[in-house]
Amino acid sequence: MRSFASDNNSGVHPSVMEAINQANKDHAIGYGDDPWSKEAVETIHRVIGNEVDPYFTFNGTGANVTALRLLTRPYQTIFCAETAHIYVDECSAPASQTGCHIRPIATTNGNGKLTPELIAPHIHGVGDQHHAQPRAIYISQCTEMGTVYTLEELKELRAFADKHQLYILMDGARISNACVALNCSLREMIINTGMDLVVLGGTKNGLMVGECLLVINDAFKQEAKFMRKNTAQLASKMRFLSCQFTAFLQDNLWKKCAANANQLAKRLCDGLKQIDGVKMTQPLDSNQLFLTMPRPVIDKLLEDYFFYFWNEEKHEIRFVTSWDTTEEDVDQLLSSIKKNS
Fold first, then answer.
1. pTM > 0.90: yes or no
2. SS3 of residue 212 by DSSP
3. In a domain, 63, yes or no
4. How many CA atoms lie within 13 A of 88 on its CB side?
5. How far is CA 58 from the centre of its chain?
6. Residues 286 and 330 in one domain
7. 39-66 tens-digit pLDDT
8. Which uninterrupted H or E stretch holds 261?
């Protein structure tokens, strides 16, 4: 089955699978004291920078919870878009695990992107013991609406955060797609924009399992290893998580995988725009497409494809292309839609 429901549904890149196979030889010391984990850390330092302390985790929710636990105390507020993954899709884990007030903010045209102007009205009660205290800004790159923060927009958020003594967590589940869209490096996205913590995502872009929490702000480096263990994200057989990131970052595999997903998303978008009754509801920035079409067409399409409704009342659905999506996959989907329109 070829799926356009999510890039989580795609397989594992052969280079990543080979890295796992190579790590699966003989015995190795657990919890990260193995050659593969050390190599992965060295690779991350070479590609992104020595300023980064990498912590491999089992999944994105775990990485987000670990990061937010590092950044906050239970009497504080985390600001996020109303469509944010930590607010909508993580079963309240960030709220229950941090004890924080999570403040969702409506974004301009529902594009999922926070701006200083949108956050500013919610900065109040500072120093007042009756109010949760502003502490952190959570953003997704790419956003849950498929849009991408420009480097300048991220720097503007950094300046705003500094003014109000806030910290920024970037959830980079699809950070590779964002870098390709902006034609920038991982370092430019992560270090040059001044992020405090970043989740370097790989599962959606060719890895089997696992994400990597990058701790950049020195204020949080001493506690990070303890917090990872406390949030149940320390893997005993760490080599099978870490070795994937070496393969992922070598020879620009991360970029090649994301480029394929983005390019095929554009091919799909261009084709959809030629079909009567189809309307795009968000600009195409990356590998996620949001659109509406007549409900009978959607229902017929569901007989052959699985995908998600974003707003069922408005007949809005989402398609996502992956590192292994092919031109044939896209053309077959377009053919099915045209046939049923």
1. yes
2. strand
3. yes
4. 15
5. 14
6. yes
7. 999 999 999 999 999 999 999 999 999 9
8. helix 253-272
- β-pairing verdict for 211-215 and 167-172: unpaired
Residues 6+ apart with CB under 8 A from 185: 179
Same domain assignment for residues 155 and 170: yes
Cα separation of 286 and 339, whole Å? 27
- 14's CB contacts (< 8 A; 6+ apart) are none
**Exposure string over 32-51, b if 16+ CB within 10 A, otherwise e:** bebebbebbbebbeebbeee
- Asked whether residue 162 is assigned to any structural domain, the reply reads yes
Q: Which of the listed residues 251, 285, 314 is the one where a domain comes to its end?
A: 251
Residues 264-284: tens digit of each pLDDT? 999 999 999 999 999 999 999
**Could you tell me the residue range of the domain that residue 168 belongs to?**
14-251
pLDDT at 341: 83
C-beta atoms surrounding 311 within 10 Å: 13
Residues 85 and 233 in one domain: yes
Residue 91 backbone zone (phi > 0: left; psi -120 to 50: alpha; other: beta): left
The CA distance from 229 to 222, in Å, is 13
Token pair 């549904």: residue? 9
- 163 and 312 share one domain: no
Domain boundary among the residues 251, 272, 290 is at 251
